[in-house]
Design goal:
Catalyzes the formation of 4-diphosphocytidyl-2-C-methyl-D-erythritol from CTP and 2-C-methyl-D-erythritol 4-phosphate (MEP). It is built from 7 helices and 12 strands. By secondary structure, it is of the alpha/beta class. The chain has one domain: Spore Coat Polysaccharide Biosynthesis Protein SpsA, Chain A, CATH 3.90.550.10. Strands 1, 4, 5, 6, 7, 10, 11 and 12 form an 8-stranded mixed β-sheet that branches. A two-stranded antiparallel ribbon has the order 2-3. Strands 8-9 form a two-stranded antiparallel ribbon. β4, α2 and β5 form a beta-alpha-beta unit.
């Protein structure tokens, strides 16, 4: 089963602050994008970026089996651009991953791939364990049952032909992720265990959290710049 990665990196990441989008900032000696791409080393990858970021992208992908393509105005449009770019030599399966998750454990990636042996799609998630509130104007207004709720992560893996057809059938979608598009197309998506280490860099404090994980995992190598 030939599997390829599609890394979504076309966003601006304004909540993270900084002079450049978060995926091009350096964490533990490498750019966020480089760390993310290296997790998928050994399989072909497509990196989808903002048209203004081509130079950043080529630098991050140097020496790796990575194709760089321009994304669209929304996440769904960027994913479709990446999927369409793979059509000339399509893989059997594709793993769609947010570039801002550079600490993805290999075990989570492998679990997603394994689940694709018996499901249309698979994605990692963590069960919600905290109490859930609703609120307004700074006050708690109610509670919600957390049973059956999960915190979604990536990579979200699919049979390539099926997810490409799903995206083509939902052009213009503002879906939060590819599982939403897949389920709208009738695909069954399995849940595999996620990881607390698989954090998504969103705010300024997340860079330090990611650096700590990467330095612990890779030691001195993490402090060497590419």
């Amino acid at each position: 089963m030939r599997t390829a990665a599609l890394i979504v990196a076309a966003g601006r990441g304004t909540r993270a602050g900084g002079a450049v989008p978060k995926q091009w900032r350096v964490v533990a000696g490498r750019t966020v994008a480089r760390w993310t791409l290296e997790v998928f080393e050994g399989m072909p990858a497509t990196l989808v970026v903002h048209p203004d970021d081509m130079d950043f992208a080529r630098a991050a992908a140097e020496g790796l089996d990575v194709s760089v393509v321009a994304g669209g105005a929304t996440r769904a449009a960027s994913v479709r651009a990446g999927l369409e770019a793979m059509a000339a030599t399509p893989p059997d399966c594709v793993l769609i991953h947010d570039v801002a998750r550079p600490c993805l454990p290999r075990a989570v990636l492998d679990a997603v791939v394994a689940a694709l042996g018996h499901a249309d799609g698979a994605a990692p998630a963590l069960a919600v364990t905290d109490a859930l509130w609703t609120g307004a104007d700074g006050f708690v207004t109610g509670t919600r049952d957390r049973a059956g709720l999960f915190r979604a992560q990536t990579p979200q893996g699919f049979r390539y032909d099926a997810i490409l057809a799903a995206h083509r059938g939902h052009a213009g979608s503002d879906a939060a992720d590819d599982v939403e598009i897949a389920r709208a197309a009738g695909l069954a998506v399995a849940i595999v265990p996620g990881s607390e280490q698989n954090l998504k860099i969103t705010g300024p404090g997340d860079f330090d959290r990611a650096a700590a994980i990467l330095e612990e995992r890779h030691g001195r190598k993490a402090r060497e710049r590419i």
